[in-house]
């Protein structure tokens, strides 16, 4: 995520997923049911337990003039315990009309006391280890979600459609899901809009748009697994450009005519980051630029980042770097957000250095000159934001990127440092990780570099301006 002016904070509700340090929350549906949350320290009720999602197939029909969404979600999952009942995350602004499990009607409820829980009771229990498909038919006018910092996310209506961004809790505002970073899945989207409106989602268009009766359907497929917060299905008036990077990666860009954008560096950025961090994780790339002034930030939606307005070069680089750090290697807990934002911010500095502009060390010196008295700049420490409302504070980005640049200098060998980032990304490709995992990975990699544990303590965890590292 990139901040419009350098700040944006997020909120969440996490899911179940058997990651060390996450504690299951008791089920809302009684014995034999998956838990109603994953127990993330910041958002204990986000996500659900008892199953692992493999694929979402979303059929969405929307009308920008009214904001109405009518949809069917088919979710393929595997039970990790016997399930007499289980929860999906879906906000109560959307009304469910029918649910089936493996083709049989299932009982369901949207209890007001549980906020965003859709409680499903199959006709017969799902046995542990069984693959099952739950189909949810629902509709309504999605309502955007307001985060602790006052920013908005989810299905955010625009003048000609909707700008859809989900970090950290927006996905249940438009489809039922297991809304936790630790449960990654592949996607199909079938989005029907009035003819003349374009629908853009993750992955690739699998066929030419189909038009009938004044409505057009766009079919998108993403074959690589992502967390729910990285999905999107934005609609509006867009100018579309397609092509391939010099390295052969297909790209698709969609730009609102009200936000003319220079995306000419995008192919070179993707190829450059691929040479540094490892093979591009996805089967296509690109960008979406909308006119969504209410939002105020960009987001690293998988395969093509979403921008609420025309991005500058550093913001474009930041979001594209997230495809490796955030989208492929994803946080295990929201407090681990430095692994996303610090890495993407440093990557934008490194792109600037690579392209003959300001070097990463020059960025470091500029920011390190900030006086210790500017406590809002230096706090919270990036390894422990301390509160959901501070997840996307400036210090997570600037001090977070400075941590990596200081580590680069401490290691003293560019090839070794870049090899560390490459191998970290490769080792955790399409997985989840914690800040502690990166620290251990680095310390094990460089036993000859003295004081690394102290270095990480000072830069990642100690409050105030880092010194004596």
From TrEMBL:
GO terms for molecular function: alanyl aminopeptidase activity; metallopeptidase activity; zinc ion binding. The keyword Protease applies. Its cofactor is Zn(2+). It comes from the Bacteria. It catalyses: Release of an N-terminal amino acid, Xaa-|-Yaa- from a peptide, amide or arylamide. Xaa is preferably Ala, but may be most amino acids including Pro (slow action). When a terminal hydrophobic residue is followed by a prolyl residue, the two may be released as an intact Xaa-Pro dipeptide. One of its GO terms (biological process) is proteolysis. Residues 315-441 form the Peptidase M1 membrane alanine aminopeptidase domain. Residues 55-230 form the Aminopeptidase N-like N-terminal domain. Its EC number is 3.4.11.2. Belongs to the peptidase M1 family. This is Aminopeptidase N. It comes from Petropleomorpha daqingensis.
